[in-house]
Amino acid sequence: MDEIVKRSGDRSTTWGILADNGDPASRPCPEPRASLPMLIFDAHLDLGMNALEWNRDLSRPVAEIREREISRGLSDKVDRGKSTVSLPDMRRAQVGICVATMIARGVPGKSMLKSLPGFASPEIAWAMTQAQLSWYRAMEEAGEMAQIVDLATLRKYVGLWQSEPSERLPVAYILSLEGADSILTPRHLERAYAAGLRAVGPVHYGPGRYGHGTHSTGGLTSIGRELLAEMRRLGIILDVTHLSDESFWEALELWDGPVWASHNNCRALVDDQRQFSDEQIKELIRRGAVIGAAFDAWMLVSDWQRGKSTPEETGVSLRHVIDHVDHVCQLAGNANHAAIGTDLDGGFGREQSPGDLDTIADLQKLPAMFAERDYAPADVEKLMHGNWIGFLERTWGKHGASAK
Ligand SMILES: [Zn+2]
Questions:
Q1: For residue 20, how far is its CA from the centre of ligand 1 (angstroms)?
Q2: 179 Rama sector, left if φ>0, alpha if ψ -120 to 50, beta otherwise
Q3: CA dist 223 to 107, 108, 122, 205, 220, Å?
């Protein structure tokens, strides 16, 4: 984009690209052609869940998906007629690569909190994740999506999206699992790995089978500790998003493998246990993690009341996303550990998103906004895609994702 080469003033807080010292983390991303919009890598979308549980045909433009829900008078979900994500809208703004989830909560018996949605058993949750996987496969067959499973496929789709983005390129995705309730046994994790699963967040909201998640208190369960060992054996990335504080620290004590946080904001800016404390962020930085900023309005501004607040009245905007990204950069002293993981289809739509975002295509506003905050062009590229790609290069270069 033209805007990103614009530099303003002397208040520069940029860090530039480090000299190439052999560490892939410090290697610059390939230069995109100047006339193209910037490649965007979104590390958290629940596409499969939206297709199956919201019954959305994501191969259609957002406008059409909204219109279908409005014309049918649907009101079973709060975000009916207000969705922001679809594959054509992603392509339109060069959101060419994403991490896409399988997600299905399922805790048997009384341990499932009544206030949380979910399936009645882990077996049902497993079946739902398999249905979501089946939808991803159908999208692949239709040429709408393509799965990234190793360095070769990563480089192929980064190259295609950098050099010749078009309306016809498949959106490339890395398969992840948000909350592992559905993993019935270690054998099931191995099967999911064979199907392309490359990152796992062991918990979601509340207590889960493998540990404690958002807004609950407690550590990992004994099978949670076993799950981590099996993930490590397979070379699966640990996603620390949603871990309770106790589970977070316990997991990191046990874990010496690749770790990221696909969609997590900063407690220093919006005080809630769902967000990371500065101490947690610093530990993740020390381990070479990348932290994706989430776009859910309540995680961006402190005064948000779910179901009551509106983007108009609170003024929540993409500027607040940048505040969270910037906070991570300030703690790191560089732009190597922050990025985006929007979660824009995570059970909410426009009613709970930044007011200056109509669809996911508006992510393309971000490069210019970072430039206005005095981020150097090379740093903007890291935040928009380079840090995630560098993380995967580093991880899969070492462990060889497809070798298992
Ligand atoms: Zn989430």
A1: 35
A2: left
A3: 13, 15, 14, 18, 8
Spell out a b/e string for 108-135, using b for 16 or more CB atoms within 10 Å of the CB, else e.
eeeebeeebebbebbebbbebbbbbbeb
Question: What would the pLDDT profile of 253-280 be if each residue is shown by its tens digit?
Answer: 999 999 999 999 999 999 999 999 999 9
Residues 6 or more apart whose Cβ sits within 8 Å of residue 10 = none
Say which CATH number the domain at 10 has. 3.20.20.140
Count of alpha carbons within 13 Å of 92, Cβ hemisphere only? 16
- Give the amino acid at 356: D
CA atoms within a 13 Å half-sphere pointing along the CA-CB vector of 183: 30
- What is the maximum alpha-carbon separation in the chain? 60
Q: Give residue 251 CA to ligand 1 midpoint distance, Å.
A: 18
379: CA distance to ligand 1 center in Å? 26
Q: Using alpha carbons only, what angle is made at residue 82 by residues 125 and 266, rounded to the nearest 5 degrees? A: 70
- C-alpha distances in Å from residue 89, one per residue of 67, 81, 92, 241, 359: 15, 16, 5, 26, 7
d(CA 368, CA 1): 8
Domain carrying residue 20: 3-403
Contact 48, 37 (CB under 8 A): no
Cα 22 to ligand 1 centre (Å): 34
| 16 alpha carbon – ligand 1 mean position (Å) | 31
**pTM above the 0.85 mark?**
yes
**Which amino acid, one-letter code, is at 154?**
L
Structural domain count, the chain: 1
Model confidence over 132-176: pLDDT tens digits?
999 999 999 999 999 999 999 999 999 999 998 788 899 999 999
Radius of gyration over alpha carbons of the chain, in Å? 20
User: What's the rounded Cα separation, in Å, for the pair 351 and 296?
Assistant: 10
Give 58's contacts (C-beta < 8 A, 6+ positions apart): 47, 50, 51, 65, 85, 86, 87, 139, 144
CA of 242 to the centre of ligand 1 (A): 7
